[in-house]
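Could you show me just one protein sequence together with its fold in token form as a worked example?
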Amino acid sequence: MITPATCRAGRALLGWSQEALAKAACVGLSTLRAFETGRGSPTKANQNAIERALIENGIEFIPENGGGPGVRLRKPSAHLIETGLKSGSKDEPLTAEEVPVKAATSP
């Protein structure tokens, strides 16, 4: 689950402003600001949207495992490398067409 600290860290790894993340997550800027500062708790839907926007743009959330929760930037996928796309942008999130789709694996 995303926390204010992991949200700020994920956004920083992407080099995104609060405005860019709010736009990517389709949430209000005031909602994101309140969440990141701990002054407000977004609805579950907004919290999920924020987390999903970060994940879809290369952030991996590391669960609590005795050392505390964390975040990291996923390695660029082969799709991004082949097409020359960046894994994130300071101004604009990747479009739906640019987000890599995981290939289905057979059992």
